[in-house]
Write a structure and sequence with these properties.
13% strand; Sig_transdc_resp-reg_C-effctor; Rossmann fold; 2 domains; transcription regulation; globular; Tscrpt_reg_LuxR_C; phosphoprotein; five-stranded parallel beta sheet; Response regulator; alpha/beta; Arc Repressor Mutant, subunit A
């Protein structure tokens, strides 16, 4: 059962999301928060697997709430799915940078919301193909002074580096397996090793690191 916390300052929106998710056989809503501060408190108390987090809320916004939730001890299994009104909202970049596993537009369909929760709950990132390229290009454009590539990148094998590039290109494990002509189990092993060596939480962080460090350059075809 996927435990979900919904955080949104609009009561009707929050209640609608909560009702929709709680109606699913494999999802249970363990809390509803009207602002970031309440979201942090409820996340600590109720231990959700996924937090559906609105970015723009009064007081503590969704970015700071995400940072605090994911920074606390024992939060390794928590995933944050941020909600935004625009596909290139500047705040989305910051949310991903502090550890969110992906984002969803507020005008998404009911099925898309339910699917998104399931996707991030299993450890995958939700970076819609139609906006991922724009998102990453804008993110890196805002950070022109690229930080030095982490030394841990040097510990990756050639195959692990290849897998990292394909993850950055938005490919799933099944698609990577087909591309490399190996089993999906083998790909999962490579992905796990990449995450462990680089200290990554999930695929969203892998994408961010690949672009920030220059492993993949915006405008080049990672796939």
């Amino acid at each position: 059962m996927i435990r979900v916390l919904v955080a949104d300052d609009q009561t009707i929106v929050r209640a609608g999301f909560a009702a929709l998710l709680d109606a699913q056989d494999d999802i249970t809503v363990v809390g509803e928060a009207g602002d970031g501060r309440q979201a942090v408190a409820l996340a600590e108390r109720n231990r959700p697997d996924v937090v559906v987090m609105d970015i723009r809320m009064p007081g503590m916004d969704g970015i700071e709430a995400t940072r605090r939730i994911l920074a606390r001890p024992g939060s390794e299994g928590v995933r944050v799915l941020v909600l935004t009104t625009f596909d290139v909202d500047e705040y989305v970049y910051e949310a991903l940078a502090v550890g969110a596993s992906g984002f969803l537009l507020k005008d998404a369909t009911a099925d898309e919301l339910v699917s998104a929760v399931r996707v991030v709950a299993r450890g995958d990132s939700l970076l819609a193909p139609q906006v991922t390229g724009r998102l990453i290009r804008e993110f890196t454009k805002q950070r022109r002074n690229r930080p030095q590539a982490p030394s841990e990148l040097a510990t990756l094998t050639a195959r692990e580096n290849e897998v990292l590039v394909l993850i950055a290109g938005g490919l799933s494990n099944a698609e990577i397996a087909a591309r490399l002509v190996v089993s999906e189990h083998t790909v999962k092993t490579h992905v796990a090793r990449v995450f462990t060596k680089l200290g990554l939480r999930d695929r969203a962080q892998a994408v961010m690191l690949a672009y920030e460090s220059g492993v993949v350059v915006p405008g080049e075809n990672a796939t």
